[in-house]
Amino acid sequence: MSNCSIVGILDKDGYSQTKLYRSLGDISSIEVVRLNYYGSEYSLPKNVDIILTAQHYEEPEVGLIIKAVRQDIPVLILADGILEFRNTWHNPLMSAGRLFQPVLGHKIATIGRSQTRILESWGNLGKCETVGLPRLDSYLNRRPRIRRPSEPFKVLVTTAKKPGFTNEQVDQVKQSLLDLQKWFNHNPVVEGMEVNPVWRLTEGLDIELGVRSQIADLSGQELSAVLEKVDALITTPSTSMLEGMLQGIPVALLDYTNSPHFVPAAWSITCSSHIPSILKEIVQQPATRMLYQDTILHDALECRSPSIDRLQTLISRMVDISRRQKLEGKELVFPDKILWKRDSEFHFPEERFNMKTLFPEHPTFSQMDTLKLQVEIEHLKRWQLQSEDKMKDLKIALEGMQSSRFWQLREKWLALKRLLRFVKYQ
């Protein structure tokens, strides 16, 4: 068998614009074939080992995915962002079951563990492989910018490509932005620090607010550059939440619709009264909230190592399984988990989990001298043993006192009974 996998990308428009597809071209074991001229009657090429696509919502892609599955051509669906509750359940343009209910391909490369759990809860057992999001691999090991004392604290306020899916939702987004704008105008200083908003608004919302929007394109490259120049992020529900978390800056979720969230945030703004306290906190960046943010990130996005490596492994194994089963004349069936590893069952301790920073009011946790702590423990053990001996002595003495007192009280009680009996018969 050839070690090279021929991967057909089923996407009319997205190849040149999507980092996900472009990153595959850099892998020597993969040969990419663009399937970008097709219609509903398109005949799938015979030489393709596997079909990849992030387009699984509409025709003709849906029909071609179903056709490929029937022809035993492996199909791997690529999740290219977070699941959004409003888009899934309250989008009038989205037909029922259109979003992974069910997954139409053989497998789906999910972006993280929480997304895998959600899709499996929708009946997709055996189809989900936790991969990550290759287009965000460039964020790995990023750190927040080092802000000079003279610089203002910059808060990026951004909206999703599609801020809302109904007129009511769009109006709620507008109101949330107006409330933020008003607050920033009236509160240029927070906790003694100058705070400046940086606006990155979509679908003409910047014009409606009368602000200058820092947006040149929606490919993600521009957002990546902006995040390196700001200190916090406020965003409507979108994958940009994860990008801000990867950058290591505090991320607040702006959602006046108060919808459930498949990916939560450490801070949520669901009404105007939340703005003052949350802006104060994201400036302070309390350690407990930042720890929770990291926990959310690592549950929502598989990002402790480059996801392109997992995607390459998944593609190669799916192709190997397909080739082997074809040689054996068997129907194409994949294992429930191809990328499963034992450590995937655990959530490893977060780097921010540090008792000294989480409990600064407790000086005990600031002591990091191991030798000194060991000596203190030995002293405490000795003191404990001595205290236990003293407690035993006190207990014996107390029992003796209680025993003597009991007999004294008993004699007095009997004498009183005799006296009462004597009085009675007089």
Structure write-up:
The model has no long low-confidence stretch (mean pLDDT 88). The longest helix has 55 residues. The protein is an alpha/beta fold. The protein contains 13 helices and twelve strands. Strands 2-1-3-4-5-6 form a six-stranded parallel sheet.
Q: Sheet with the most strands?
A: 6 strands, parallel
Tally of extended strands?
12
Radius of gyration: 32 Å
Structural class: alpha/beta
Unreliable residue stretches: none
What proportion of the residues form beta strands (DSSP E)?
Answer: 5-15%
Bin the helical content.
40-55%
Shape: extended
Mean pLDDT: 88
The helix/strand order is EHEEHEHEHEEHEEHHEHEEHHHHH
Strand order of the largest sheet: 2-1-3-4-5-6
Treating each run of at least 4 consecutive H or I residues as one helix, how many helices? 13
Distance between the termini: 120 Å
